[in-house]
Amino acid sequence: MIAPNNKKTALITGCGAGGIGQALSKEFNSQGFLVIATLLPWESRDHLEPLGIKCFDLDVTNEESTAAFKVAVDKLTGGRLDVLVNNAGICYTMPTTDTDVKEVEKMFAVNVFGPMRMVRHFYPMLINTKGTVVNIGSIGGIVPYVYGASYNASKAALVHYGNTLRVEMKPFGVKVINVISGEVNTNILKSDVERSLPADSLFASTNDLFVAHVKRTPGGMAPEDYALAVVGEVLKASPRAQFWYGAQTFVVWFGDTFLWKTCWDLLFWKMFSMERMVPKLANKKIE
Fold first, then answer.
1. N or C: which end of the chain has fewer CB within 10 A?
2. Would you place residue 284 in the very low, low, confident or very high pLDDT band (cuts 50, 70, 90)?
3. Which residues have C-beta within 8 Å of that of residue 197, sequence separation ≥ 6?
4. What is the percentage of the chain residues whose pLDDT exceeds 70?
C-alpha cells in the first residue's frame, strides 16, 4: 500500500516500548501522519501496531539492513518522506579512566553513525517533500556529566553533525532540528543497570554512588509531554534549529550561554562527591 498523497509521513528510529521513540510515534500518529517506526527484531510491536503505526525491523548500524529498509519505505510512501527522526540510541556509563573503547565504538555506531547512515539513504525522499531531519540530542552533549564522557561525546558529535547537515541541506529545502533533550522518564539506562566499577578503578571508593547513579529512576518529564512539545516544534513553518526541551534544559542553556565554561566543574564535583578522591590519592603512586 502506498500512502495517500495527502498524508504526510514520519520515520522514527528506536521505537521500543517505554522510550522516546514510542511517544514520538504516537504523537505523530495523532497528528495524522503515516508513521513508520523501527525496532530491533526481538522487540515487541504490541505498543504500536494496534494504532496503525507501520513497524519494521532495522539495525541502524548495519548497511545492508538500512538499504533493504529504504527500499521498503520507498514502496510504502511512493518515494516521499516528510520527517526523519534519528532517535535510536544507547547509553554507556563509565569513568573515562575505566572506559572500554569497544563498548564506546558500539555506542557511536548507534548514536552517531546510525543517523549518518539514515540521512545517506533517505535524503532523496526528504528532498522530494522539502522535509525535516530531527536529531535527538541531549544536555549531556553540552555539559560534562560525570561518568558519561563517552555518551556525552556521542551526543555532542550528533549535534555538530546536525549543524553542518542543516547548512548543506538548506539549498534543497530540507530543515534540520537538533533537539537538546533534558532528562525524560524512559528506560535508556536499561543496558547500564547491572554495571559497577572495576575493583582497581580510581573511583572504586565511590562505587556506591556509581551504582546508585546507573540504577536511578530518571526524574524528568513524561515521554508523552516531551513528544507533544517536540512534534509541535517540528510542525512549525519555521522551527528552531536547536530546540531545548526536558528537565534541566533551561538551567543548562543559561549556563552554557552566559556563564564561564568551567562553571559546571564545581557543580558536578559536588553532585558526584569528587572530594572523596582527594584523600585516597594523597601521597600515593598510581601504577
1. C
2. low
3. 94, 95, 98, 203, 204, 206, 207, 210
4. 94
pTM: 0.93
Residue range 145-165, pLDDT digits in tens: 999 999 999 999 999 999 999
Rounded-to-integer distance, Cα 166 and Cα 171, Å: 10
- Per-residue pLDDT reduced to its tens digit, 198-238: 998 988 888 888 888 888 776 778 999 999 999 999 999 99
Task: Provide the annotated active-site residues.
Answer: 151, 155
Using H for helix, E for strand and C for coil, what is the string for the chain?
CCCCCCCCEEEECCCCCCCHHHHHHHHHHHCCCEEEEEECCCCCCCCCHHHCCEEEECCCCCHHHHHHHHHHHHHHHCCCCCEEEECCCCCCCCCHHHCCHHHHHHHHHHHCHHHHHHHHHHHHHHHHHCCEEEEECCHHHCCCCCCCHHHHHHHHHHHHHHHHHHHHHHHHCCEEEEEEECEECCCHHHHCCCCCCCCCCCCHHHHHHHHHHHCCCCCCECHHHHHHHHHHHHCCCCCCCEEEECECHHHHHHHHHHCCCCHHHHHHHHHCCHHHHHHHHCCCCCC
Q: What is the C-alpha separation between 12 and 27, in angstroms, rounded?
A: 11
Residue 185 has pLDDT above 50, yes or no: yes
What are 70's three cell numbers? Answer: 529504504
Cα separation values, 283 from 42, 81, 250, Å: 52, 61, 41
Give the per-residue pLDDT at 1.
Answer: 45
CB proximity list for 4: less than 8 A, separation 6 or greater: none
